[in-house]
Fold this sequence. Notes:
Elements: H1 2-31, H2 46-76, H3 91-96, H4 104-107
Helix pairs in contact: 1-2
Amino acid sequence: MAEHLAREHARVTERLAMLDADMAALVAASQDSNADDEHDPEGPTIAFERSQLAALTRQARVHQAETVAAQERLAAGAYGRCERCGLPLDTARLEARPHARTCVACAMGLA
Length: 111
């Protein structure tokens, strides 16, 4: 599982770098432009694209933090146990969501 989490962390870190580069390129491209993109019927506005990139970046940062927390739980010997009920997490859940903190029942409020 340590290798899986390391790969996941590397993947999300790479995605963050790409999103940051995309945002920098968008900002640079729009700095010298005096285009009135807010009223351009031909496509999305610069503000919309910035907002979309910012949301994707926030999601990726949360995912990265969740992955780091999972790595810390693994190192501490607490990985793979539900933080609410203490039962072991199902292997399929950890494969699908390696940073899961709770079992399905607790996540759905059934336990």
